[in-house]
Design goal:
Order of helices and strands of chain A: HHEHHEEHH
Largest interface: A-B, 47 and 46 residues
Largest sheet of chain A: 3 strands, antiparallel
Oligomer: homodimer
Strand order of the largest sheet of chain A: 1-3-2
Structural class of chain A: alpha+beta
Distance between the termini of chain A: 39 Å
Radius of gyration of chain A: 16 Å
Number of domains of chain A: 1
Low-confidence stretches of chain A: none
CATH class of chain A: Mainly Alpha
Number of strands of chain A: 3
Mean pLDDT of chain A: 93
Chain lengths: 112, 112
DNA sequence: GAGGATACTATCTAATAAGATACTAACAAT
DNA sequence: ATTGTTAGTATCTTATTAGATAGTATCCTC
């Protein structure tokens, strides 16, 4: 993304944060509850641990999610939303509404 | 994006549509008014015509924007939102709010 | 002592996307 | 005849992402 607009324009800035291919569903999952790494993997079976780790790290770096490590064996790591992440909820809600509209739209197009 | 979730999950589906690096600001510009190719270029000076064309074509293919060609010389082509594109406005509004919050957040972080 | 559970990491390859550069068509004005 | 205008296209290179594969540490249970 352009340096000149990142940190200035809210659209360019947000787009940069949402570049990851899975960020929206991850954010959606976390908006429902705190969740463990493994649970996320099971929820998104087509996503490998390599990619999941990368996306989570990126969201953590951007301050949207919090990673909590429990010092036990076998390991336990929980992911939850930060305040900034929680404030993202209205975006997710609107995205869900629009996304479902879009899905209807393409279904109708195919039927004709 | 995964075929298994595209067209089913609203988040995965929307993320796919928003992959373009400039789609959000383009949608924002078009949500304010119908606009010509050249005007968009001037509004986004760091974006080349190659990339702008690609993004516009993609949004058109997905049914979010409408391309109107006026048969005159020099050429005139206008871009505007379809109904589906207009329905995207609430998402943009929430994104703008959150994006500005995020910008404040990183500014404060840097100051500390 | 073998296998399972968890949450990864390292390395590499493949796929996708962005951008640089140069060019085009057609007419109007100078 | 040359220049300007608009909305692109074609080609190529570079950058960014995703994903495949294999492996790690530590303890518990069988």
């Amino acid at each position: 993304m352009e340096k000149d607009l990142f940190g200035i324009c809210p659209f360019v800035t947000t787009q940069k944060i949402l570049t990851g291919k899975w960020t929206l569903i991850i954010m959606h999952c976390l908006s429902e509850r705190t969740i463990r790494f493994n649970e996320l993997q099971r929820a998104l079976p087509t996503l490998t641990s390599t990619t999941l780790t990368k996306q989570l790290r990126m969201l953590e770096e951007h301050g949207l999610i919090i990673r909590t490590v429990y010092n036990q064996i076998p390991p336990k790591v929980e992911y939850s939303l930060s305040d900034l992440g929680k404030n993202f909820k209205p975006v997710l809600d609107e995205l869900e509404i629009w996304g479902n509209q879009y899905i209807d739209f393409i279904r109708n197009k195919k039927q004709v």
